[in-house]
């Protein structure tokens, strides 16, 4: 399935579809590409496909999907992914809120895919029963902060010095917005 409910949802250059198990190696490769620059994840070592199997299996297309973005005409070439994650500890009282994770292949950063996927997530969230979208971003990741702010997310909190990435201390910014 691709698009909002069925069919294809597109920008001029990009499209998205539900991730399949066959996409998991590409998703892991994209995630791992963000680890060395220490700007988008607290993982310090690459993750394996096997270590992400449970995460993928627990995603739910009707409530907490994982999408892959791709260039028009290349649906099998994953250029990035967006996942709707349980908020905080996943307790049922937090169900109206989704924690977004958005990662792009290095060749697709700054080319519009992130904005496309984020705009689609905002539009699609109410169909998932989501009223609030949130995410955490390192304060030093100004590109991601700008992307989310440009899509109506506001800073809801700042957690100083909570991440230590091999001696690089990072503040983490919580951003969010209503989509109801």
UniProtKB/TrEMBL annotation:
<keyword id="KW-0808">Transferase</keyword>
<dbReference type="InterPro" id="IPR000182">
    <property type="entry name" value="GNAT_dom"/>
</dbReference>
<keyword id="KW-0012">Acyltransferase</keyword>
<dbReference type="Pfam" id="PF00583">
    <property type="entry name" value="Acetyltransf_1"/>
</dbReference>
<protein>
    <submittedName>
        <fullName>GNAT family N-acetyltransferase</fullName>
    </submittedName>
</protein>
<feature type="domain" description="N-acetyltransferase">
    <location>
        <begin position="14"/>
        <end position="180"/>
    </location>
</feature>
<dbReference type="InterPro" id="IPR016181">
    <property type="entry name" value="Acyl_CoA_acyltransferase"/>
</dbReference>
């Amino acid at each position: 399935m691709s698009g909002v409910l069925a069919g294809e949802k597109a920008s001029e250059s990009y499209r998205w579809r539900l991730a399949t198990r066959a996409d998991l190696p590409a998703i892991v490769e994209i995630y791992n590409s963000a680890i060395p620059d220490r700007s988008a994840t607290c993982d310090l070592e690459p993750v394996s496909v096997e270590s992400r199997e449970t995460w993928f299996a627990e995603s739910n297309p009707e409530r907490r999907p994982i999408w892959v973005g791709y260039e028009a005409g290349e649906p099998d070439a994953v250029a990035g992914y967006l996942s709707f994650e349980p908020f905080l500890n996943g307790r049922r009282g937090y169900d109206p809120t989704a924690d977004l994770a958005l990662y792009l292949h290095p060749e697709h950063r700054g080319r519009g895919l992130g904005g496309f996927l984020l705009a689609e997530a905002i539009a699609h969230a109410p169909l998932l029963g989501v009223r609030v979208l949130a995410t955490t971003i390192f304060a030093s990741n100004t590109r991601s902060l700008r992307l989310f702010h440009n899509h109506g997310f506001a800073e809801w909190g700042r957690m100083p010095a909570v991440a230590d990435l091999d001696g690089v201390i990072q503040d983490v910014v919580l951003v969010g917005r209503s989509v109801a």
